Amino acid sequence: MNRIKGKTVLITGATSGIGKACAFLFADSGANLVLTGRREERLKELAKELKESFKTNTKTAVFDVQDYSACEDFASKLKEPVDILINNAGLALGLDPVYNLRQDDMDIMIDTNVKGLLTLTRLISPGMKSRNSGHIINLSSSAAHEAYAGGAAYCASKHAVKAITEATKKDLHGTKVRVSMVSPGLVETEFSNVRFKGDDQKANSVYEGLDPLTAQDIAEIIFFVANRPEHVNILDSVIYPVYQSSPSMVHRDA
Ligand code: NDP
Ligand code: 8X3
């Protein structure tokens, strides 16, 4: 059953990976989309492709979720109520032990993954609360459940997403606004290219011999979470490739 048709879905970080795969799935189900990211050209191309393939009504907005005033300006200009907010924009930078952690990497991870997600939530949730309807879906991670070496800042940011999700659910207790998070393990996207700052060889090695999750795998879970009946709230789901049993326990074929 399609419960998504006609809904307005706001996806942050739609220029790549999981966010982009979500844009296609929700478009295919007849949603209206608001897509955001920092790379304007990619957003333009995506909106064009979605219009041609699905006749999707897509609006795009170019801003950095770390920039509070840009987020506020974006939210103030939204023409229609947001039914589903997918807080997906996020990144990891580096895999250095904490004693070598770069201050600028740490700031960007916390400002994007934690403060950016919180900012969008605080701006979009009041409308949902007043309409007594809506769904916030946060991209968390297996790193929200277990920290790994080299991930002090990234894992902290995803532990924070778990805390934000739980607190948001409780803040909206007694309303019909749903709050969920999705916690994937290794998904092959641009994530590791970003983490290793363009070292594609290093990025590719993360997924070697492992048959990783794809962006489409996770988009399908997000869609499933969003498409449940209104009385069903999936708070979390942890998804690993079959060869991964924890953030640090990964089997690889030779
Ligand atoms: P990608 O790098 O492919 O996509 C990340 C998206 O986030 C891009 O669209 C990027 O857009 C956007 N983004 C990053 N920083 C900002 C910013 N400051 N402001 C606005 N948009 C931003 O990675 P994934 O698709 O894999 O990641 C999506 C989410 O999933 C992230 O939150 C990540 O932590 C999480 N995740 C990923 C996993 C994986 O293994 N890949 C596993 C578990 C969770 P642009 O650069 O155009 O701004
Ligand atoms: C992304 C998963 O293990 O690459 O959240 O950090 S991992």
In short:
The chain has eight helices and eleven strands. By secondary structure, it is α/β, with parallel strands linked by helices.
Description of the structure:
With 254 residues, the protein is of the alpha/beta class. Helices cover 43% and strands 18% of the residues. It is built from 8 helices and 11 strands. The strands form 3 sheets. It has a 7-stranded parallel sheet with strand order 3-2-1-4-5-6-9, sandwiched between helices. Strand 1, helix 1 and strand 2 form a beta-alpha-beta unit. The radius of gyration is 17 Å and the shape is globular. The structure holds NADPH dihydro-nicotinamide-adenine-dinucleotide phosphate and 2-hydroxyethylsulfonic acid. 2-hydroxyethylsulfonic acid binds at residues 92, 141-143, 185-186, 247. 2-hydroxyethylsulfonic acid (8X3) binds at residues 92, 141-143, 185-186, 247.
Examine the coordinates and then state which fold CATH places here, giving the name of the CATH topology: Rossmann fold
Termini gap: 42 Å
Can you tell me the CATH architecture? 3-Layer(aba) Sandwich
CATH class: Alpha Beta
Question: What proportion of the residues form beta strands (DSSP E)?
Answer: 15-25%
Tell me the number of strands. Answer: 11
Give the proportion of residues in helices.
40-55%
Work out the radius of gyration: 17 Å
How many helices in DSSP terms?
8
Globular, elongated, flat, extended or rod-shaped: what is the shape?
A: globular
Whole-number average pLDDT? 98
What's the assembly state of these chains? single chain
Order of helices and strands: EHEHEHEHEHEEHHEHEEE
Going across the biggest sheet, name each strand in turn.
Answer: 3-2-1-4-5-6-9
Sheet bearing the most strands, described? 7 strands, parallel
Number of domains: 1
- The CATH homologous superfamily is named NAD(P)-binding Rossmann-like Domain
- Bound small molecules, deduplicated: NADPH dihydro-nicotinamide-adenine-dinucleotide phosphate, 2-hydroxyethylsulfonic acid
Structural class: alpha/beta
Q: Note poorly predicted spans.
A: none
